[in-house]
Amino acid sequence: MAKKVELTAALKKNFGFDTFKGNQEKVIQNLMDGKDTFVLMPTGGGKSLCYQLPSLLMEGTAIVISPLIALMKNQVDAMRNFSEEDGVAHFINSSLSKAAIEQVKEDILSKKTKLLYVAPESLTKAENIEFLKQIKISFYAIDEAHCISEWGHDFRPEYRKIRANINEIGAAPIIALTATATPKVQHEILKNLEIPQATIFKSSFNRPNLYYEVRPKDNNVDKEIIKFIKANEGKSGIIYCLSRQKVEGLAETLNINGISALPYHAGMDSQTRSTSQDKFLMEEVNVIVATIAFGMGIDKPDVRFVIHYDIPKSLEGYYQETGRAGRDGGEGQCIAFYSKKDLEKLEKFMQNKPVAEQEIGKQLLQETASYAESTLCRRKLLLHYFGEEYNDDNCGNCDNCRNPKKTVEAKEELTTILELVEQLKEKFKAEHIINILLGKKTKDIEAHEHDELDSFGAFPDQDERTLDTIIHQAMIAGFIAKDIENYGLLKITKAGKDFLKKPTSFKISKNIDMDEEDEEADMPTIKAGGGAADEVLFSMLKDLRKKVSKDLKVPPYVIFQDPSLEAMATSYPINLEELQNIPGVGAGKAKRYGEKFVELIKRHVEENDITRPEDIRVKSVANKSKQKIAIIQAIDRKIPLDDIAANHDLEIDELLDELETIVDSGTKINIDYFIYDVMDEDRVDEIYEYFKEAESDSIEDAITELGPEDFTEEEIRFVRIKFLSEMAN
User: What is the DSSP string of 126-191?
Assistant: First the structure.
């Protein structure tokens, strides 16, 4: 217990945070105990702190291996902001002069430096290796660790050499960190870094608010999409296509049919792309048709649907793109159109690539096809792919769970599959097993003389997809596993061997041909908002917000965010006094923007004879405390904020809390004199521009979008106060 208190105190002292996020504390404790550590944590989860804090607390200098020079500089600047000693953090890479490198080495040797960032290329240089041999290294941190794996989405060959360099420099605990890794990628990271016994910390991949559906793709796709969007008028959505040509064509089709849509792809000039993105954020258009180039740089919280016109090349890509829906926790519909013809096209695109790359690409496509064709719970399949178990039988939020298919007994087929895998000594992939059972004389089967086996042609009347479903469902049930070392080879687990000894009922869902139209299945319609009791009023309030937003030339969220509108459409405030008690409104916003909203609500209540909830408590707004008045007066006199904090016995984050309360209440303050003294103008401008374009003023969203490695939470909070004071008050 003492250790926990000590870490929390260190967090508060060094970074100003009161509590850790997620697994941060356990990760840090594990590393400080001298154990190798693997961290799988989504972007914005606070990966950097997992090595920054222990570096300050442990003896020696921590070596952080990072692929991006720009991120190194920003992280070093951020660490220096938290410390009185500039030498606390340094980087060595190709951008530094010899004189600068000598200064870095001097600080390290004098034990000032706790964190040293290096590019993997810099780590291979003999002079750097010789220097690092002289110092005490607390631990090695490998950031963006997925770069090690050819199966990762950003493979870097130089990452393969990191372990050899570490061996030459000297042993110390290793922490590897990444935001995305399937079991295969995770295994490669651990193997290549030679840390097989590392403690693994994973955050969940489950997004319970997202609805997953796969639809058969035919000549009516455009018509279906138009029908869907019109049934969900006013909702924001992204449609992903694989080709630029399809992006342009579909955007044009939507516009011709009365749907305001814009294209977005890498072939457009940056100004046009930027304009399209801004119009989407400002809700001037609701639909963007894009290649995967879109969405990386934004975090619009209320994207209500993501449609894949073409099936993606991998489940990692699919998961990442669908993840742009419902980031506010509200409803998000993820609909993919699938055709085997699209898969064949994607395979043809790979033909000019190296054989090893083709093999990897085909395996990834096969996983995507299995997902698309499966009758199992989509959520269970996705989480299983990322190595996470989902134990509910029915998630209630995917097409296969909402409309379960008829089940059929498959005990005989599974028994035969398991016996065949065992007979072939677990040396073949699912495709080979299926071809044997169907009686297909492929080159591989004839070469191994597997057409002579008793099980050859055991199920001539079965279809390929049903057998694939049995294998996939057996994997999820724990009877079969894929050999990660030799990707795709089927292995029988202990549970599978137990099943062979005593087979029990094993039911699978009956397949529907994905290349045929399923007449009964309609694309879902989306309910307005997430929690509004009066959906009609909620829609009217959104329309009014859009009009006010356009008139004032500010993003809609600056006026009121969706949760505030939902609360208005539930409790019906009909005057400014009631409105200011709505979450996210306050006295300042009520006074500045509220008149038109309460007029609309009052008219709606009267016209529809609505009885408002009787238990609405109108809270009186407390007078500003003496401390708040003193803080405002000190700011008027341009006293530095750290001095104001000290005078009131506050930490800087506690002062920021007070300033945010002051601004949220509608009081305008000007802290430019302090901001521009502690921050570069271009950094202030970048954060300010983010808030101008963003759909949310959430600090957490801003950190995720701007990058925790690039900007500190403190910097973002300073500029947010400036922004809200100028734009919203």
Answer: HHHHHHHTTS-EEEEEESSGGGG-TTSTT--GGGGGHHHHHHHH----EEEEES---HHHHHHHHH
Question: 210-402: which CATH architecture?
Answer: 3-Layer(aba) Sandwich (3.40)
- The amino acid present at 121, given as its one-letter code, is E
Instruction: Give dist(CA 137, CA 134) in Å, integer.
Output: 9
Amino acid 238: pLDDT: 94
Q: DSSP characters for 581-615?
A: TSTTTHHHHHHHHHHHHHHHHHHHHHHTTPPPPTT
61 pLDDT band, cuts 50/70/90, is: very high
Rounded Cα–Cα distance for residues 601 and 616 (Å): 15
CA distance 80 to 510: 61
Query: 383 is written with which tokens?
Result: 């989480």
Quick one: pLDDT band at residue 596, thresholds 50, 70, 90?
A: very high
Mean pLDDT, to the nearest integer, of 332-360?
80
CB 445 within 8 A of CB 457: no
The tens digit of pLDDT for each residue in 402-441 reads 988 777 888 888 999 999 999 999 888 888 999 999 998 8
Q: Does 1.10.150.80 match the CATH number of domain 535-551+559-607?
A: yes
- Distance in angstroms between the alpha carbons of the first and the last residue of the chain: 46
* HEC secondary structure over 570-589: HHCCCCHHHHCCCCCCHHHH
CA 93-95-97 angle, to 5 degrees, is 95
The pLDDT tens digits for 514-552 are 444 444 444 444 443 345 678 889 889 989 998 888 888
CB 241 within 8 A of CB 250: yes
Distances (CA, A) of 330 to 462, 505, 698: 42, 39, 15
How many H-runs (helices) and E-runs (strands) does the chain carry? 34, 17
Burial of 438 (0-12, 13-18, 19+ CB in 10 A): middle
Fold of 407-509: Arc Repressor Mutant, subunit A (1.10.10)
Angle 622-626-630 from CA coordinates, rounded to 5°: 130
Please, is 531 exposed, middle or buried when counting C-beta atoms within 10 Å of its C-beta (0-12, 13-18, 19+)?
A: middle
Strands (E), 219-286: 236-240, 261-264
Instruction: Give the H/E segment covering residue 30.
Output: helix 24-32
CB 375 within 8 A of CB 463: no
Percent of the chain with pLDDT over 70: 88
Whether this model's pTM surpasses 0.85: no
Distance CA 678, CA 676 (A): 6
Nearest Cα to 562, choosing from 579, 588, 583? Answer: 583
C-alpha 584/C-alpha 564 separation (Å) is: 6
Q: Residue type at 729?
A: N
* CATH for 2-202, options being 1.10.10.10, 1.10.760.10, 3.40.50.300, 3.40.50.720: 3.40.50.300
Alpha-carbon gap, residue 295 to 95, rounded angstroms: 30
CA distance 379 to 208: 9
